[in-house]
Amino acid sequence: MKRRDFIKTVAVGVGGLSVLGARGQDAAAATKPLRVALIGCGGYGNFAHIPAILGHGTTVKSGDDTHTHVPATGGERLVAVVDPDSRQIAKAMKRVNEVSPGTDTAAIRKFADYRKLFDEMGKELDAVIIATPIHHHALPALMAMRRGIHVYLEKPLTHTIAEARLLTEEARRCGVATQMGNWGQSTEGPRLLCEYLQAGAVGAVREVHCWSDRVDGLPPNTPRPPALPVPKELDWDLWLGPASRRDFHSGLLDFYWNAWRDFGNATIGNMGCHIINHAYFALKLAKPASVELEEVYGGSDESWPIRNRIRWDFPARGELPPLKLYWYDGIAPGAPYNEKTVGGGGHRRMTRETAYAPPIRTELEKKYGREFTGEGSLIIGDKGVFTMGRHGDGFRMVPEEAHRAFPKPPRTLPRIQGTHQEDFFRACRGGAPACSNFNHAGPLAELVLLGNIAVRAGVGKRVEWNSAGMRCTNLPELNRYLETSYREGWGLS
C-alpha cells in the first residue's frame, strides 16, 4: 500500500473533515460549557467521568502503568444524573463535591429512568455520557442521537453486533458527535504503531497475539445465586431494563454482571476494545473471514467462561497479507481459581503466574531478556516484533537494539490533544470527529463481539462470517445471538 493511501485509510479513525452536530455550533455556543447528563453513576461513571465533565484532574494508577485520565480543563456543566440505585446517585453527588467544592448539587436533576431524562430534558442537553451495564448501552444512545444529542458511550459499545451496526448507522444519519470509551485510542501508541509499520520496521505482519489477565466469567456450571430481597434504594425493574425478568442477587452488582450473558460480554467485551484496538486500527482488521474458539474453560448457558483462546482469520487487505489474530484471557490451565489468585472488586485479575497468556510471550521474554506487560499485544512481523500495553502504553520493537537502530519515522497521523473525553467535547463543539467515533468504534465492537459468537459455537467450530450481510454463513443457528430480544417496553425502533 502506498504511503498516501495508508494515511488516508487510518486517518478516518483520528479525524477527517469537521462535522457539526445536528444542532450545529455558532461562535458563541462554542465557548459555552456543554450541558451534559451522566447515565450510570457507579464505577467508572463516578470515578472518571464526573471529574471529566467538571474539568478536574484525576490521576490513576492501574497495574503496571500510572497515568492521568482527566487533567484539569475548563469544565462542562453536569446538569443531570441517572441511575436506578439512589445510593449511586448519592455517591455521585459526593464525588461532585469532592472534585468541585461549592457546586450546587441540588441544581443537578436526578433520575432513576433515562427515558424520563429524555422526555423531560431532551431539549436542554448537549451531550450524554453513558456508563451503564452493557445491556443498557444501545437504547439511551439511540434515544440521545435521535434527539440531536452527542453521545459518549463506554466500551464495548453494545451488547450485540446488531446493536453496534445500528448505532454506527444512526450516528452517521443524525450527524452527532460520538465517542466510545476505549481511551487508549487517544494515546501515542496506536499512531506510532501505524507509522512504524508503514516504514517497514518489522516487515509484513501475519500474526497478532492479544491477551488480558482479567477474569470476567465464572467457573464451570456456576448456578444463579439464590434470590435476595431487593434493596429499598434500588429499582430492580429499571436495572433489568431490556433484559429478561429474573430475581435480584447481589452478584449482579459491582461489575459482576459482566460475567452473565444477559447483561455483559465477559473479558473480551471488557478489555478487547482496548487491547485489540491498536492492531485493528493499524492493520485494517474490520472484516474477518472467520472466527473460531480454540480453547475454553468454565461458563454455562447463562455465564461466560473464565478462560478463552479465540482466533480470527483475515483475508489479504490490499497489499496487507492474510493475518491471524489470537485472543487469550482469564486463568491459565492448571492454575487455581480462588481468592488468592483472583482479585476482588470490579476488576478480577489473575497474577502474572496464573494468567492465561500466549506461549509466544514467554518465548520472546526468554529470548530477549525482558518482561512484557500483564495485558497487551504482540504484533509479529517477518523482520521483528512490536509490543504494547493494553492502552497503547510501552510501545517498543524487540529486540531493543533493533528499536534503537531504526530511524523514528516521520509523523503522518494527527495526535490527540488531552484526554479521550476532551477529544469528545471538542467534537461536540464542531471540531474534527473524535478519535474513537462510532465509524471507528462500531466495526471494532463487532469484531470483539464476534469472539463471543465463537464462544457460543463451541471449541473447534469455525464460524464463517459475512460482514456485509452481518451473518454467520455456515452456522445459521448462531445468527439469533447477533440480536437481542428486548423485554416489552424496552425495544429499539
What's the quick description here?
The protein has 493 residues and is an alpha/beta fold.
Note down, in words, how this protein is organized.
This protein has 493 residues and is α/β, with parallel strands linked by helices. It folds into two domains: 14-183 and 422-434, Rossmann fold (3-Layer(aba) Sandwich), CATH 3.40.50; 186-418 and 445-482, Dihydrodipicolinate Reductase, domain 2. It contains 14 helices and 17 strands. A nine-stranded mixed β-sheet has the order 15-14-13-9-12-11-10-16-17, with helices on both faces. Strands 5-4-1-6-7-8 form a six-stranded parallel β-sheet, with helices on both faces. The longest helix has 20 residues, at 438-457. It is globular.
Global Rg: 22 Å
Report the span from N to C terminus.
Answer: 41 Å
Mean of residue pLDDT?
89
- Give the beta-strand count: 17
Strand order of the largest sheet: 15-14-13-9-12-11-10-16-17
Structural class call reads: alpha/beta
- Output the CATH topology of the largest domain: Dihydrodipicolinate Reductase, domain 2
Give the biggest beta sheet.
9 strands, mixed
Note poorly predicted spans.
1-28, 60-72
| Range of helix content | 25-40%
Shape type = globular
The percent range for strand residues is 15-25%
Q: Domains counted in the coordinates: how many?
A: 2
- Tell me the name of the CATH class of the largest domain: Alpha Beta
CATH architecture of the largest domain: 2-Layer Sandwich
Number of helices: 14
